[in-house]
Write a structure and sequence with these properties.
By secondary structure, the protein is mainly beta. It is 4% helix and 53% strand. It is built from three helices and 35 strands. Strands 2, 6, 8, 9, 10, 12 and 13 form a seven-stranded mixed beta sheet that branches. Strands 16, 20, 22, 23 and 24 form a five-stranded antiparallel beta sheet that branches. The chain has a four-stranded antiparallel beta sheet with strand order 1-3-7-11, with no helix packed on it. Strand 22 and strand 23 form a beta hairpin. It starts with a strand and ends in an 8-residue tail after the last strand.
Length: 429
């Protein structure tokens, strides 16, 4: 249920009508929700002089909660005493009433309501047709609604034109100025995943930090990411519990004033774009966030960010990724990995693979072998074998690719890490 909140306006009439006494009166009131009544309870010890007088007075107060009289919030609703705050994404509602204060019939009454922002002027009137006549002590009522989409100063311009019984045409306006504030502070971070061992696609992780910068708590109804046409998105804000998933923020998703919450999303290229390394490399548009919240007594607000941009991953001319690698291997025992080489340039390459041993990792096989020609956007999978002579978490390094056409060498170190264990050592020892 909506109730009327008061608002003041300033008359601005033309000079030639400044001394004209108008027959009609214009009243504009903002429609907003009521608030819970608040009081300041006064208590004392039983052994103090007032005894239980304060408690009995609070019990007799109709605004207090029975059985919990010392609570600040009561169980009664109060009407707004001022215009209040309006936040971006909320719906601005206003009640407009034109009353005939005179003793004569007024004709051809036209009421127009416009909202002036820093960039545009919007017509909010439900009807642009004139009312043929308005009898004394009668009124014309209208309710306007507008979803606020801009921050800054807004001016509601209400204009009334009419004709008197003598045929004189009169006109006056009222201006109502209010500020639209920012409810949320949204910050985003992107993390480019170099490779995905379960597939051949690139992953992009988006971390969205949302802070409530209003003075009241918010119920976060929905925070979702609408991806661009090249990506599919997976939300990482819930934990699987049996057959159901539970939100990481709990059942009641409230965001207190000045609190910040982090949301995480994973984006993967669609199958038709996954194999096109050059296309994915140049994609910077990821998608946009859609945020829906509720405040106080269920007032709904919604914000949608502009298209989020990320820095395109720099793969260079040749990209090397891993399709397969074991998590744990035995000390001094050969193990297999599978590398994938993709030509990200716009020219054909003739590649030679060289393998350089490190202190802990040794390659098994022939170094300097020819891989042949690789056309633009084409890929090549190469199985390799190596072993480690040192226990612990070891880094795989030492791969070199040389393009014989341009005599250019590409070095790949710290490609991945593998845990090396000794199979002859028992866990107890």
């Amino acid at each position: 249920m909506q109730v009327k909140g008061q608002s003041s306006g300033v008359d601005r009439m033309d000079v030639n009508q400044a001394k004209q006494e108008h027959l009609l009166a214009l009243k504009v009131m903002r429609l907003t929700k009521p608030t819970l009544f608040t009081n300041m309870p006064v208590t004392c010890e039983d052994r103090d002089l007032p005894g239980d007088s304060f408690l009995r007075l609070m019990k007799d107060d109709p605004s207090t909660v029975k059985g919990a009289e010392t609570l600040i919030l009561g169980e009664m609703l109060t009407l707004p005493q001022n215009f209040g705050n309006i936040f971006l994404g909320e719906t601005f509602s206003s009640y407009i009433s034109v009353h005939n204060d005179s003793s004569q019939v007024v004709k051809d009454i036209l009421v127009k309501a416009d909202l002036q922002t820093s960039s545009q002027r919007l017509n909010l009137s439900a009807s642009n047709s004139a009312v043929s006549e308005l009898k004394p002590e009668c009124c014309i009522d209208d309710v306007i609604h507008h979803e606020v989409k801009e921050i800054g100063t807004h001016i509601l311009v209400c204009a009334v034109s009419y004709t008197t019984q003598t045929g004189e045409k009169l006109y006056f306006r009222k201006f109502f100025k209010f500020q639209v504030l920012k409810p949320l502070d949204v910050k985003t971070k992107f993390y480019n995943a170099e490779s995905d061992l379960s597939s051949v696609t690139d992953e992009v992780f988006l971390e969205a930090q949302i802070q409530n910068i209003t003075t009241s708590p918010m119920f976060m109804e929905k925070v979702s990411l609408e991806p661009s046409m090249m990506y599919n998105v997976t939300e990482l804000n819930s934990v699987a519990s049996g057959d159901e998933s539970e939100s990481t923020f709990g059942k009641m998703s409230y965001l207190q004033p000045l609190d910040t919450r982090q949301y995480l999303y994973c984006l993967k290229p669609k199958p038709e774009f996954a194999e096109k390394a050059g296309v994915i490399k140049g994609v910077t548009v990821i998608g946009k966030l859609d945020i829906v919240w509720k405040t106080n007594l269920g007032e709904r607000g919604r914000l949608q960010t502009s298209q989020l941009q990320r820095m395109a991953p720099g793969y260079g001319d040749v990209r090397l990724s891993l399709e397969f690698i074991p998590d744990t291997v035995n000390l001094e025992e050969p193990f297999d990995i599978t590398c994938k080489i993709t030509n990200c340039s716009e020219r054909t390459m003739d590649l030679v693979l060289e393998m350089c041993n490190t202190r802990s990792v040794h390659w098994c096989g022939v170094s300097g072998r020819q891989l042949g020609k690789l056309s633009p956007s084409a890929s090549l999978s190469i199985p390799l074998k190596l072993l480690s002579s040192v226990q612990g978490l070891q880094s795989i390094s030492g791969l070199r690719l040389t393009d014989t056409f341009l005599k250019r060498t590409y070095e790949y170190d710290d490609i991945a890490q593998v845990c090396v264990v000794c199979p002859y050592t028992s866990p107890e020892s």
